[in-house]
Structures are given as C-alpha cells and as structure tokens.
C-alpha cells in the first residue's frame, strides 16, 4: 500500500470502446472512492495512503481482496462496535506474532537500480526517491514478494509496479519503459522486473518508494549502503 500517492495522464481519440483512464494520483483527501476497471485494493490503498489492510477491515473485504467495478469503498475508519472489535483482534494478533514470523518481517532491501539519487525523499514531497540511469536499464526487485499492481492506471506514475513483501511493507517502481512481471506473480529479491523509462524531469530515472503500513518512508534508511 503501500501505498503506499503516484501519477500519468494521456489523450485518446474517440473509439468505439473507451480506454481505461488513468486514476487520480492522490486520494488522501477523499472519504469515499468508487471502484473503476483496473483497480485493486492494493492500488487504492496505495493512493489513499491507508494501505490495503485498513481498507480491507473498514470495508469488510476478505482475502484475496477482490473488488467489483462500481463498488464504493470507505476511506476512513468506522466507529461501529464491530469495527472496534476487529481492530482489537488485529492488534492482539500482531502482538502475538511468533518469533519465526518476526524474522520474516526483517527484510533485507537492495537498491532496485544502480545510479545517483537526483530527487531525495524531501524533494519528492516525502514520497520516495528518484534514481537516475539510462532508458532500458534493468530494474530489479528490492526484496522478495508478490506483485500487487502492474499497469499504468495511476496518474503521474507511468508504468508502475507495486510489490507486496509482507503484511507491513510494499515497494513501488514508477516511470518504467516496460513491465516484465504481472499481478499475482511471485518475485525474488534481485529479480529483473522492469526496464527504466523517463522520469518527471524528462530524463531517465526510476521513482522508487517503500511504504510501511500504507505510509511512504524514506527508502534510503532501509536500503543497503
């Protein structure tokens, strides 16, 4: 999620079948959202900043988190007794995570590409970093996980990948020239997942984010030196 506030618009001529329009980048100020074609709970959680887990609880959506087009999602915490009970249950479950599961949560991140940081966490409005390179440069998974989103439907992100690593962390890879993995596909750390495209400044760059519990965190803190 994480999730995870990303970005691209385009013009299209009249066709017999309307193309899927890019989604609004940021839903952080919205209270409700109507599901459109191509949406996933991960992508909506990513854009709203709440993460897919919160949206699943607030909207009573069970795994594997399938969404139906036209459904209205609530983007805020409910105040009903059932919602409170569910939050307490989740909190208790997390408190009782076994030692083995805690080890799984200790991710060992690697840089998705080799290059210079041209926009740091603060330059991007606390939403990831931009790493320079060359068009077509290999983009690799920063950690093992499952592809939660693969497409170009999020306004301002170009061709975007979101990888779910565990219940807490997501990573996002934006402005790619080509996506090489599909939604639902398992990927290993260091696996080739995309090819670099052109960033927001018109130069080759990868926009990279790490989201913890749906909120962007500074990737540099997590990446190996």
Radius of gyration: 17 Å
What's the CATH superfamily of the domain at 117-222, by name?
Glucose Permease (Domain IIA)
CATH architecture of the domain at 117-222: Distorted Sandwich
Our estimate of the beta-strand percent is 25-35%
Uncertain regions spanning at least 5 consecutive residues: 1-22, 80-85, 94-104
Backbone structural class? alpha+beta
Assign an overall shape: globular
CATH class descriptor name of the domain at 117-222: Mainly Beta
- Terminal CA distance reads 25 Å
The counted number of beta strands is 12
- The average pLDDT score comes to 80
Task: Tell me the major beta sheet.
Answer: 10 strands, antiparallel
How many distinct helices?
5
Q: The CATH topology of the domain at 117-222 is what?
A: Glucose Permease (Domain IIA)
Roughly how much helix do the residues carry, as a percent range? 10-25%
Order of H and E elements = EHHEHHEEEEEEEEEEH
